[in-house]
Please model this.
Amino acid sequence: MADNTRAESAEAATGRRRPHPGRAVARAARDAAAAFRHKLSSGELAQLPVVLVLAVVWITFQSIDRSFLSPRNLSNLSVDIVGTGLIAVGIVFVLLLGELDLSVGSISGLAAALFAVLNVDNGVPEWLALVLAVLAGTVAGTVQGYSFAKTRVPAFVVTLAGLLAWNGLMLSLLGTSGTVNLDENGLVARLTSYYFTDDGAAYGLAALVTGMVFLVSYLDRRRRRAIGMPHRPLRAIGARTAGLAVVAFASAYVLNQFQGLPLALLIFLVVAAGLDVMLRRTHYGRQVYALGGSVEAARRASLSVTRVRTAVLAVSGTMAAAGGLLIASRITSVSQSSGSGPLLLNAIAAAVIGGTSLFGGRGTTWSAVLGILVIQSIASGMALTDTPTAVQLVITGGVLFAAVVVDALSRRSQEAHGRA
Model:
């Protein structure tokens, strides 16, 4: 009692009172709400719309079929997103320049066909055939990127020619047989069939991801604070990390209820994270964003426009080849229809739906991860409910159109606030 009296006397002497815990929480909530309203008004929506769409999709299909959010279906979903998702990650690089790569479907089919012909028909070791197939995608992308950079013909025209050329080369490689079956116990097939059954693998990955995100955010805050730049409050970093931890550990729990952590999902997350670091933490990545913002400004800043454009298409080709091999792994075969159908449109739609701007200069590799999760969730729900494919395409198209409208409105709002 005496201690409380002394504390109150000290507060009275200094003219200050300790903030009431309830008032502090309310003030923090008001600050967060004000920051959120500012982001909405200035067009900085980030991934909020796609997260809301994903939540609506999951709630809708779970209400229709209780098995949608079952461990088995979610585990299958986590593997199904990988092939097209890798291609979409490469598409993000091209969209950051404000361009389109229409050849990724054909390159994915060409890489899968090259692997099958080398390994199955000619006895080349799987690891070597795998490396050569991915390098073929890199070469194809580099050729297109250099042609685009030097001729200044729009990328979609150059890659449209590539779409036809690489598809023709794939058909030539497969020959009259048309279909090549892969070894179901081979290296490539195991990329999508292998699971880490130990529970510690999934939980360890969740802990690693959470810890890395917190560490990167904290170090970035400290660096910005040291040089007097705006920085994120510690409580905001803590709240963001806590939210990620809930999602990561819940996902690990669900995966462990079925067969454990899929190798394919691990590969996808590692690649997406690595390329995200390349984009946001390296000189090359800053050049890509700068070029997407303004080509003329990039030239005046002495950036090598030819080199950056060539490298971007090379990354897109490499990721298309990797995605094609994961798709072939999932079905353990390669045919003349590989790389065709809705694959190209789904890859582009995933990047755009996830938040990558069609106008260039805005987006991350995680945009592709979120986008393909939305598209594949719709496909999975449609399959469970026996809904016709036509309806699936209509719904996916509607979501894509909504994403494009949000992107356009966001850019217009940013221009009004002098941020575009």
About this structure: Residues 199-226 form the longest helix (28 residues).
